[in-house]
Write a structure and sequence with these properties.
Largest sheet of chain A: none
Strand content of chain A: under 5%
Shape of chain A: globular
Largest interface: A-B, 75 and 84 residues
Number of strands of chain B: 0
Mean pLDDT of chain A: 94
Low-confidence stretches of chain A: 1-5
Number of strands of chain A: 0
Strand content of chain B: under 5%
Oligomer: heterodimer
Radius of gyration of chain A: 24 Å
Helix content of chain B: 55-70%
Helix content of chain A: over 70%
Number of helices of chain B: 17
Structural class of chain A: mainly alpha
Largest sheet of chain B: none
């Protein structure tokens, strides 16, 4: 048998981080479940504290786990094949995130195309409409629900348009910083990445302002304002959480770059963060079209 | 595959210092990054869950032994049916298959371990916590979830009890576990195959897990989405599933079954992989139609995304929808038929022997086909109006899940136990397990077809008098099947403790890289990849 030389695949030694992470997730789940149950029953409980403790433990776990991985990578334990595993793992993780958003977009399309018109008698539902809510008129955005909750629609111009421009620009600057890294131009890398992070943070600030505007007495657009408010806040809210996570990833990359990490050939973490950033950008574009404009 | 020279001695040369300190005691299992350890954990966990969910089924069957309310309150009965379903789907069948994937895929493709070993550990260890949360709800004031494992709105929103949030977060953790496990499987298969092992040279077992993992990555996030909507509907005043706010309870079913139908293939495609490994081994022939098996598996997976509403024919969908989903569903019979044909053709004129793995596999082919045929009956929209929500449905999915998935898991366990433990299992005890299971399982589930056709609804603690006789026999079958599974526990413990020493390849017709390493398989295998021709 001819033994060609293959790179050996690094199989890490035992690690305590996963079990720490499992305990942290357990605390988050039990904490969150108690927390929402207590809110509903109007009592004070320990849920919130357990949830926060769980989140703290997750952060501790992620920092510890990733610093192990970074050390292994910096000491050259990883082969090209290992790098591929990480890249593929990240791509499939992003695909799973796409499917998570698909569920909420699916709900949005379903109510817009089917259930709201049906409530007004579309298809063979004339009798349903007549018996249940004869006063109801279908429209989108649904500003008056069948049970009479009223709200107003968030326009696409103003803050949402500015936010779209910000995010699209940030995707381009993220790409520039990647190019700079590949060409080993460190000052440009720092500059473009810095700009990307600032754009992302401004996006988040404006998003908070938009929510404040929605929750104002003038607009009265709440999470509970019927299916329009539901889909609006759930889609933009989950997107905002992903932007927040993306920002954190980019900030971590920024500090790693300041410490001199990454080479033009070896920069999986940077690449992963930038993929993630492009992903939240694409989600926003779809969201901007279907939640705000159309 | 000619790789006779590959053996465990390759490992010795390769152990750098961190590799082989296996910690001892509990720490070994808590901190492990070894795919064999993690596979073992998955398999034991799933067996414990099988017995837990099985115990609930025993109470259900005891209550249904005769008409009237004897043992449990209707609300508690509903909690049992709900948690029984959740445990069997997410706690028994899925983790058992993940256990097989962990143990076998690296050995079958000549990889040193799974691609992301630490994440592998995390995927497993969050599962026991998730089920601890789910089971703890039995001890809460409100009791466990009582809305069925499909948690249809508004049962799970407006009318749900106080433990719904615990259910939601438990399902979230199960989903995270499945997604991470699936990503690991996909990456391992794409990236860690031994040189020379092209995709079309992979064992079919590996192919089926590969496709299953894709299904998992695609639909588990949708499950996460739907339980999130359920959470906000119940606790934060949204109205996704409430028509008064512009939503639609039927939308719940659409999103749920968009996850749910691929999910049922997630629970059967790996079973196809296992029996496609075992039938050739004991027929001493190559698998008939390998490439058609690959294409059939892929088409089943693709079709699974466009058939979900066949679970919802009676919800008042537009006629076009009813027809579309009916025809798409019936299309699935084509690739499935290809598979059944190929298994039979593999056995045709083979020199067959009937060891326990083969017995379970043959039973799988026949009984899974029965479950498939009752599925075809349910796929016909007009007749489904009659069968919907009756015991006929219960009979159907237990034939595919118990005599299908579970039997394949047993077949696989018997087949690879010598490789895992280094000992041969007791063939006579194995045969006892098989025949007791086979007879009792048919007594358990076959009469349910008649009950359903006669109109007995599912998920009820009491029933009309005319169903009494069949239910008595069903319950007797149920108890017998339950007890028979303890034989398997005895077989496994006996096999771990001792028994005849197993050679590296105990089955003379078996093929694949896993038989080129010693039995029991050394802690680390294939640190240097073998060459596959």
């Amino acid at each position: 048998m001819t033994t060609k030389k293959y790179e050996s695949y690094y199989v890490p030694a035992q690690s305590h981080w996963p079990i720490v992470g499992a305990i942290a997730l357990f605390m988050i789940a039990v904490g969150a479940a108690n927390y929402v149950t207590d809110i509903k029953n109007n009592v004070n409980g320990f849920g919130g504290y357990l949830l926060l403790a769980g989140i703290a433990l997750v952060i501790y776990m992620v920092v510890g786990w990733f610093s192990n991985v970074i050390n292994e990578s910096m000491t050259g334990k990883y082969s090209h094949q290992m790098d591929n595993s990480f890249r593929q793992g990240m791509s499939w993780f992003i695909f799973s995130e796409v499917m998570f958003f698909a569920a909420f977009f699916g709900a949005l399309f379903y109510v817009r195309v089917f259930s709201v018109p049906w409530l007004d008698g579309a298809g063979n539902n004339v009798e349903t409409a007549a018996v249940l809510w004869p006063e109801f008129t279908a429209s989108w955005p649904l500003l008056k629900t069948p049970d009479g909750t009223e709200t107003t629609a968030m326009g696409w111009y103003g803050l949402p348009l500015i936010n779209t421009i910000l995010l699209l620009t940030s995707s381009i600057t993220a790409h520039f910083s990647h190019v700079a890294l590949e060409q080993n131009k460190r000052p440009q890398l720092k500059m473009w990445l810095g700009i990307t992070i600032v754009l992302g943070l401004i996006f988040l600030v404006l998003q908070v302002q938009e929510y404040a505007h929605g929750y104002s007495d003038e607009m009265q657009l709440y999470l509970t304002s019927g299916i329009y408010g539901n889909t609006f806040y759930m889609l933009t809210g989950f997107h905002g959480m992903h932007v927040t996570l993306g920002c954190i990833m980019l900030i971590v990359m920024f500090f790693r770059i300041l410490k001199g990490h990454f080479t033009p050939k070896n920069h999986f973490a940077f690449q992963a963060a930038s993929w993630y950033w492009h992903f939240v950008d694409v989600v926003w574009v779809i969201l901007f079209v279907f939640v705000y404009i159309i | 595959m000619t790789t006779e020279t590959i053996n465990e001695s390759l490992d010795d040369a390769h152990n750098d210092d961190h590799h082989d300190h296996k910690m001892t005691g509990i720490k070994r299992w808590l901190y492990t990054t070894n795919h064999k350890d993690i596979g073992t954990l998955y398999l034991w966990f799933s067996f414990i869950m099988l017995l837990t969910g099985g115990a609930m089924a025993m109470v259900i069957r005891a209550e249904l032994f005769q008409p009237g309310l004897q043992l449990v309150e209707p609300d508690f009965f509903n909690q049992l049916t709900t948690v029984h379903g959740l445990i069997m789907v997410f706690g028994a069948i899925m983790p058992a298959f993940t256990g097989f994937a962990n143990w076998m895929i690296p050995m079958m493709i000549g990889a040193p371990d799974m691609a992301l070993p630490r994440m592998n550990n995390w995927s497993f260890w969050i599962l026991p916590f998730a089920f601890a949360i789910l089971l703890s709800s039995f001890f809460m004031e409100s009791g466990a979830p009582n809305f069925g494992w499909t948690f249809y709105a508004p049962l799970s929103t407006t009318y749900s009890n106080g433990s719904t949030a615990f259910f939601v977060f438990a399902v979230h953790i199960m989903g995270i576990s499945s997604i991470m496990g699936a990503i690991n499987i996909v990456v391992t298969i794409m990236n860690l195959r031994a040189p020379g092992m092209t995709y079309m040279k992979m064992p079919l077992f590996v192919w089926t897990f590969f496709i299953t993992a894709y299904l998992l990555i695609a639909v588990m996030p949708v499950l996460a989405g739907v339980v999130t909507m359920l959470l906000t509907d119940t606790y934060f005043g949204t109205s996704f599933f409430d028509a008064a706010g512009g939503g639609d309870p039927v939308m719940f079913q659409h999103i749920f079954w968009f996850f749910g139908h691929p999910e049922v293939y997630i629970m059967i495609l790996p079973a196809f992989g296992i029996v496609s490994t075992i039938i050739p081994a004991f027929s001493r022939k190559k698998l008939f139609g390998y490439s058609s098996m690959v294409y059939a598996t892929s088409s089943i997976a693709l079709l699974s995304f466009i058939v979900w509403a066949h679970h919802m024919f009676t919800t008042g969908m537009p006629l076009f929808g009813e027809l579309f989903f009916m025809y798409c569903t019936m299309l699935i019979a084509v690739p499935t038929g290809v598979k059944v044909f190929n298994w039979v053709a593999t056995m045709w004129r083979g020199s067959m022997t009937f060891e326990t793995p083969m017995l379970f596999s043959i039973a799988f082919v026949i009984l899974f086909t029965i479950g498939g045929f009752s599925g075809l009956m349910l796929a016909l929209t007009p007749v489904d109006f009659q069968y919907h929500d009756t015991y006929f449905v219960v009979a159907h999915f237990h034939y595919v899940l118990v005599t299908g998935s579970l039997f394949s898991i047993y077949a696989g366990a018997y087949y690879w136990l010598p490789k895992w433990t280094g000992h041969m299992y007791s063939e006579s005890l194995g045969k006892w397990h098989f025949w007791c299971s086979l007879i009792s399982v048919n007594l358990l589930f076959f009469p349910m077809h008649f009950l359903g056709l006669a109109g007995m609804p599912r998920r009820i603690p009491d029933y009309a008098l005319q169903f009494a006789d069949f239910n008595k026999w069903v319950s007797i079958g149920g108890f017998a099947f339950g007890i028979s599974q303890l034989i398997f526990l005895a077989v496994v413990i006996k096999c771990i403790k001792g028994g005849e020493k197993a050679p590296a390849k105990p089955w003379d017709g078996a093929e694949g890289l896993e038989w080129t390493v010693a039995s029991p398989a050394p802690y680390h295998t294939f640190s240097t990849p073998p060459k596959v021709d």
